[in-house]
Specification:
This protein is an alpha+beta fold. The protein is built from 3 helices and 3 strands. A 3-stranded antiparallel beta sheet has the order 1-2-3, with no helix packed on it. It is flat, with a radius of gyration of 14 Å. It starts with a helix and ends in an 8-residue tail after the last strand. The relative contact order is 0.14. The mean pLDDT is about 80.
């Protein structure tokens, strides 16, 4: 999908930090959240769906305490 680079690498480069963040490659910092979405229209599923985040990575490392205990 063409919106992915616009929201990641292109945005990081526009902010002058493309060498540190913006893509999932060794040596770059990355925060990432995984959530279920429809294969038909992933962007719509994320934007308008009632989804729960399944996993989180902060600075490239799994965040084992997500979701936070209630």
């Amino acid at each position: 999908a063409e919106w992915v680079p616009m929201a990641t690498l292109d945005a990081a480069q526009a902010l002058g930090v493309g060498d540190e963040v913006g893509s999932l490659v060794p040596g770059k910092r990355a925060d990432l959240a995984a959530l279920p979405c429809s294969a038909d229209d992933p962007l719509e599923s994320i934007a308008y769906g009632d989804t729960q985040i399944e996993r989180v990575w902060i600075a490239g490392r799994p965040w084992p305490t997500f979701p936070a205990p209630s």
